[in-house]
Design brief:
Number of domains: 4
CATH architecture of the largest domain: 3-Layer(aba) Sandwich
Largest sheet: 7 strands, parallel
Distance between the termini: 65 Å
Shape: globular
CATH superfamily of the largest domain: Glycogen Phosphorylase B
Helix content: 40-55%
CATH topology of the largest domain: Rossmann fold
Bound molecules: 2-acetamido-2-deoxy-beta-D-glucopyranose
Strand content: 5-15%
Strand order of the largest sheet: 3-2-1-4-5-6-7
Length: about 600
């Protein structure tokens, strides 16, 4: 009886496995026969754009061109699709972006113009929240002026959507809120947008990856550091709320409040960043690369022809370091060239900093070198320029290593070109980037507090000789290339939001934001168009949203069962023990007798 049944089951299992195999093959075949050509797909899903609102206002306040490039690259795609884009930003940029209407808000004030403020941040150990208070202070002091400019531009340009850089740029989101228009944020650094306990940041005195930290460290970085941060930034939120009251903008309780239901783009990708779970509203769209880059100038081209092992050096346009560090850097370049570890250095060095170098360099072997010769480019192996076409240089085969401040844009360019990085982070997100780059195996890090000639030279040597940097560089390059296509997705999402804002009725708005239920929270109003991406937990309240009621009950149940079990065991043990004791006493009694 059992044998035939067993046979039958075996045959059934065989048929199942066969079907499974055939089905799998069929799927592989049909996927192979599908065409993923971009043209084909775009032809299929083209939607009618005639009635979509078309005006997009890009706003940026802090960070200059490195913060402007990501939103402007995305805007470029949108302009090609027929949208109108205007930009509000400080400074006078020669923008390489055609057809963007530019509203300038005063001169761009660089960090070198504000040395009395930034010296402390750039020179001291960077484990405080100090930079946030500086940029928040600047924002607050300009808030009313900026608000007025935004409102004036808005009345002229009539934006349908605000596309705001998220670096101390509250005014952009506030104006969108005031005009009841949707807004989208874009940033390079969103550690404070999402709370993820296992990812922190050196600016909080912690690490980007908390995986291997002790319990005490994890406790401090998950609980104490964020509380300290929010406590310290409360003052700026309070100050800002007073200014908001003047222009009729609702206050917020913290920095995230107004952005909570907004789409949030980040110019980053996992592999560089520590991977975390992202909610649907927060989307990694980086690395956002340009379609074209400035070509290498003839003089640099000539230099590179003669120097097959060149190191590119650039600390970006925002940060600077101490005169002592600049002297150490220059000494290590000279000695690395003398020792034939590299044969050339191209250094992007701001003219305004030239006088912070000493007039003479004394090398380790006692040789004295006049610095003026180097600064005037009379040294054949060190070439100093004020500004350089960084991407094309990194892409050049003779640039072998990149000494960088590890800013997001520079890091992305180095990863995209698979150039090993020697990081010298100075402030802001740079310490975290440097940690992440080192963890990806493409970089080594220097310390601005303890810069040493020998350390620099030995790290250059390692980056050039160890195979692991090349291998990891290739891996990260592939990831960067694949992910650099996501700027088109960002443009698609902006189009979708414009469409959705038009196809949302007032009653939908009210329903989603809970206004109809009587708990009016106007700050949620303008960004409720993306209800498809807003996770239900944000509407369910803390206890229900986190399922604390359900898991709490489960825990309670388990505790009750456990205690019952323990009680039972205790009873049984007690009975057994008293039984044994009884037997023992009887035994003793009989023995005595
Ligand atoms: C921007 O700078 C250029 C020269 O660099 C100057 O000719 C132009 O007038 C400036 N534009 C504004 C709006 O200041
Ligand atoms: C980078 O260099 C390679 C050749 O080394 C070239 O084919 C490619 O076009 C360059 N990329 C860019 C974006 O210029």
């Amino acid at each position: 009886m059992i044998r035939p049944l067993y046979r039958f089951l075996q045959i059934l299992l065989g048929i199942y496995l066969l079907c499974n195999d055939l089905f799998g093959r069929w799927i592989i075949l049909s996927v192979k026969s599908m065409n993923y050509g971009d043209e084909k797909i775009s032809k299929r899903i083209e939607f009618d754009r005639t009635n979509i609102p078309k005006n997009i206002l890009v706003g940026s306040y802090f960070g200059g061109i490195s913060h402007l490039r990501p939103p402007l690259e995305i805007s470029k795609i949108l302009i090609e699709r027929g949208y109108n884009v205007a930009l509000i930003a400080p400074g006078n940029f020669t923008l390489n972006y055609q057809n963007i209407k530019y509203f300038q808000i005063g001169e761009k004030v660089g960090t070198l113009d504000l040395r009395e403020i930034y010296d402390e941040v750039f020179k001291k150990d960077y484990t405080s929240y100090h930079t946030f208070s500086i940029t928040s202070d600047l924002m607050n002091s300009d808030y009313l002026k900026l608000f007025e400019i935004y409102m004036k531009v808005a009345s002229e340009f009539k934006p349908d959507l605000f596309f705001c850089d998220d670096g101390s740029n509250e005014v952009c989101f506030d104006v969108a809120w005031k005009l009841k228009k949707p807004s989208i944020a874009i940033c390079t650094w969103f550690i404070f947008r999402l709370y993820t306990p296992y990812r922190s940041d050196p600016s909080l005195g912690c690490h980007v990856n908390m995986e291997h930290e002790s319990f005490i460290e994890r406790f401090r970085c998950a609980i104490i550091a964020p509380i300290q941060y929010f406590y310290q930034t409360r003052k700026y939120t309070n100050d800002l709320n007073k200014l908001r009251a003047i222009v009729g903008v609702a206050p917020t309780s913290n920095y995230n409040d107004r952005l909570r239901d907004s789409l949030y783009f980040s110019d980053s990708f996992f592999g560089f960043d520590v991977p975390i779970h992202l909610p649907p509203l927060v989307q990694d769209v980086g690395p956002i690369m340009q379609d074209e880059y400035e070509p290498i100038t003839p003089d640099l081209s000539l230099f590179l022809e003669k120097h097959k092992k060149t190191m590119l050096v650039s600390l970006g346009t925002t940060v600077y370091t101490t005169p002592k560090n600049y002297a150490i850097l220059l000494q290590s370049f000279t000695e690395a060239i003398n020792r034939k570890i590299i044969d050339g250095v191209i250094w992007s060095f701001d003219q305004r900093l030239h006088n912070s170098l000493p007039s003479e360099l004394i090398l380790s072997d006692g040789t004295i070198i006049p610095v003026n010769e180097i600064l005037n480019n009379r040294n054949p192996n060190i070439y100093i320029v004020h500004y350089l076409p960084q991407f094309e240089l990194l892409n050049h085969t003779n640039v072998k290593v990149f000494l960088s401040h590890a800013g997001k844009a520079s890091s992305n360019e180095a990863l995209y070109t698979a150039t090993p990085i020697l990081s010298l982070p100075i402030a802001f997100d740079q310490m975290g980037n440097a940690e992440a780059l080192e963890a990806s195996g493409v970089s080594l890090t220097l310390s601005k507090q303890d810069l040493q000639v020998e350390d620099i030279i030995s790290k250059i040597e390692r980056l050039l000789s160890e195979d692991s940097f090349k291998l990891n560089g290739k891996r990260m390059q592939a990831l960067a290339m694949i992910n650099s296509k996501r700027k088109y997705r960002a443009a698609d999402m902006i189009e979708y939001l414009l469409l959705a804002s038009q196809l949302t009725s007032e009653s939908d708005d009210a329903l989603i934001s809970g206004i109809s239920k009587g708990n009016i929270n106007e700050s949620e109003f303008t960004n409720s168009h993306l209800r498809e991406l807003i996770t239900p937990d944000t509407r369910m309240g803390f206890i229900r949203g986190q399922y604390l009621d359900v898991f709490g009950s489960l825990l309670g149940g388990i505790l009750i069962i456990l205690s019952a079990a323990i009680l039972l065991v205790w009873f049984i043990v007690r009975i057994c023990v008293s039984f044994i004791m009884l037997r023992f006493r009887i035994l003793q009694k009989t023995k005595k007798e």
